[in-house]
Amino acid sequence: MEKSRLLIITHELDPYVAITEIANTVSKIPLRLHDEELEIRVLMPRFSTINERRHRLHEVVRLSGINIEVDGEDYPLIIKVAALPGARLQVYFLDNEDLFWDRNIYCDEDGDFHDENLNRMVFFCQGALETVIKFGWPPKYIQCHGWMTSVIPALLKTQHADNPVFADAQLMYTAYPNEMAGSIAEDFADQFLEDTALTEEDLAPYGTGSEEDLHKGAIFYADHIALTKGVDESVVKASKDSKKTLVEIEQAEEAEEVFAQFYVSREEENV
């Protein structure tokens, strides 16, 4: 029997990048769900802090070569891959040396939220979906973790709504508290309007582009929602008001079991 496919999209994953709660939560999920007869792939940015030699990254030439429009310019998307330690599954890294060069990752050397974060977000959200299309690997489930992935649900439900690769995909968005050390630039909506096929109406649920608004926008488009402890009450309210499937995670250590129960139940019910 063919395994159902789960795509995990995140901007942190231990042991590659571990700055916020995201890394601790996400790192356990592939190992646990791999035991539940799911075929899993993980996508994340290749930040410059990730040592390619130590983690044995190598370029996947057949997947590289796509150009992603960011701020009106084309940026080449380079795909690299490594095996996740302790598991027989692959992590794919989306790389562009012009965007992910800074070793401080989210903040600059002065500790301020990095000016490149909006460009990185545009690049990563578009690049992740384009990579899956080039895979020719239709997922049944997609998990998006954290603010840098928050516009993926909108792109999936609008720009890629008719793409057969995503025809049966169920998307879950997981919101985390206080993960942004600043705010996305004021021209958040303008840049996505310029670089993607999203319209003003499509972007309206994302409000000002604040951390809470990014979560709310993702919740608006997602099929299922997961909330970790401590998220803003307005995000909790938006999740409950949406009447969508809601998974609540009290501790990072619980995440693997909570998600396992969710996917096992859906597989058993064949939904």
CATH 4th-level superfamily:
Glycogen Phosphorylase B
- So, CATH architecture? 3-Layer(aba) Sandwich
Proportion of beta-strand residues: 15-25%
- Head-to-tail CA distance between termini: 16 Å
What is the CATH topology? Rossmann fold
Pattern of helices and strands: EHEHEEEEHEHEHHHEHEH
Number of domains: 1
Low-confidence stretches: none
User: Could you give the count of β-strands?
Assistant: 10
Quickly count the helices: 9
Describe this entry's structure for a reader.
The protein is α/β, with parallel strands linked by helices. The protein has a single domain, classed as Glycogen Phosphorylase B (Rossmann fold). The chain has nine helices and ten strands. The chain has helices at 21-34, 52-55, 117-135, 152-157, 188-195, 200-203, 211-221, 233-241, 255-269; strands spanning 4-10, 38-45, 58-59, 66-70, 73-83, 90-95, 141-145, 170-175, 224-228, 245-249. Strands 1, 2, 3, 4, 5, 6, 7, 8, 9 and 10 form a ten-stranded mixed β-sheet that branches. Helix 4 (152-157) links the parallel strand 7 (141-145) and strand 8 (170-175). The longest helix is centred in the middle third of the chain and has 19 residues, at 117-135. It is globular and about 45 Å long. The mean pLDDT is 89.
Task: Give a quick set of tags describing it.
10 strands; Rossmann fold; 271 residues; globular; 9 helices
Question: Briefly, what is this?
Answer:
By secondary structure, this protein is an alpha/beta fold. It has helices at 21-34, 52-55, 117-135, 152-157, 188-195, 200-203, 211-221, 233-241, 255-269; strands spanning 4-10, 38-45, 58-59, 66-70, 73-83, 90-95, 141-145, 170-175, 224-228, 245-249. 33% of the residues lie in helices and 22% in strands.
